[in-house]
Design a protein that fits this description.
- With about 350 residues, the protein is an alpha+beta fold.
- It folds into two domains: about 10-200, 2-Layer Sandwich (Fructose-1,6-Bisphosphatase, Chain A, domain 1); about 210-335, 3-Layer(aba) Sandwich (D-Maltodextrin-Binding Protein, domain 2), CATH 3.40.190.
- Helix content is about 30%, strand content about 25%.
- It has nine helices and 16 strands.
- α2 packs antiparallel against α3 and α6 packs across α9 (about 325-335).
- Bound molecules: 6-O-phosphono-alpha-D-fructofuranose.
Length: about 350
């Protein structure tokens, strides 16, 4: 069978550079840095059992969470790849207490900032469960050539120029949007190339998968409890009971639900009064992707995640995202609960 010649990520970026008329190629160079870092992290993850990147690094991040060795390696890899291209003037990371200023040479003249979770759910690699990188790109607000400020990083998600994730799973994929739909690229490690494998990804209007850590059920708000029970009740007309799928790796749960249809829930609880997931480098980029694929992402009934005005770098928000009809059903239960 004649193998189709698939478009590479690099070719795709260049072909779509015209989507950004004001882009001077900086955004393409930025994606090239992300692509390189993803390949390096793919290589480490695929050998996790054989090289010393599993387990804990012996440090805690600003969240007080123990850093895995993979967290530290991935954070350093992304910072180095982004800083080397002179296309980013600031970086925020789950693994960094404060955002990093890149004000040397070309970087200071760049108009983009990057926010990222270098490896989300990194402890999963100790047990060979897939993990992911999440990234979010904004145009700076403060004048080019000056040092970046809070104003640059505390922009609502609606201002994102681009967002994406890399899922290191049975295959490694890079999925991203620049506001013109969502496209997925699968990595061929034998050639070291990402190929367009999932053009124009669209999430089904509804689905039968709900993803939540039901171990926290007793701590959830009543509206969430009622929705979970709704998912579990027999109703042939609406294909219930739904299927519960939750692997504790946000990118993996979101990726599956994006393709099959479904809803991911990380509510507030007595343990996480504002939810567990971070707004700037987890919820905003994922929400941009989900909405661009035709889905919905809210932090409470009627409030899009992307419209939240950030107030701190590592702030957490309740997070509900996925198929529009399923998120709407949840919102109705949350409204009853008000
Ligand atoms: P819990 C991983 O730590 C993460 O940030 C997401 O990847 C994942 O969906 C969630 O937290 C899992 O949290 O409390 O259910 O273990």
């Amino acid at each position: 069978m004649k193998e189709p010649i698939l478009q590479t990520l690099g070719e795709f970026i260049i072909a779509h550079q015209k989507d950004y008329p004001e882009a001077s190629g900086e955004l393409s160079a930025l994606f090239s840095a992300i692509r390189l870092a993803a390949k390096i992290i793919h290589r480490h993850i695929n050998k996790a059992g054989l090289i010393d990147i599993a387990g804990l690094a012996g440090e805690r991040n600003v969240q007080g969470e123990e850093q895995a060795k993979l967290d530290v390696m991935a954070n350093d890899t992304f910072k180095a790849a982004l800083a080397a291209r002179g296309v980013v003037c600031g970086i925020a990371s789950e693994e960094e207490d404060h955002y990093i200023l890149l004000d040397d040479g070309l970087n200071k003249e760049s108009k983009y900032i990057v926010l990222m979770d270098p490896v989300d759910g990194s402890s999963n690699i100790d047990v060979n469960v897939s993990v992911g990188t999440i990234f979010s790109i904004y145009r700076r607000k403060s004048p080019v050539g000056t040092t970046v400020t809070d104003e640059d990083f505390f922009q609502p998600g609606t201002e994102q120029v681009a967002a994406g994730y890399v899922i290191y799973g049975s295959s490694t994929m890079l999925v991203y949007t620049t506001g013109n739909g969502v496209n997925g690229f699968t990595f061929d490690p034998t050639l070291g190339v990402f190929y367009l494998s999932h053009p124009d990804m669209r999430t089904p209007e509804t689905g039968q998968i709900y993803s939540v850590n039901e171990g926290n059920y007793v701590h959830f708000p009543d509206g969430v409890k009622k929705y979970i029970k709704y998912c579990q009740v027999e109703d042939e007309a609406s294909n219930r009971p739904y299927t519960s799928r939750y692997i504790g790796s946000l990118v993996s749960d979101i990726h599956r639900n994006l393709i099959y249809g479904g809803i991911y829930l990380y509510p507030s609880s007595s343990r996480y009064t504002n939810g567990k997931l971070r707004l700037l480098y987890e919820c905003n980029p994922i929400s941009f992707l989900v909405e661009q694929a035709g889905g919905r992402a809210v932090c409470e009934a009627g409030k899009r995640v992307l419209e939240i005005k950030p107030t701190s770098l590592h702030q957490r928000v309740p997070f509900f995202a996925g198929s529009t009809a399923m998120v709407a059903d949840l919102e109705n239960f949350l409204l009853e609960d008000r």
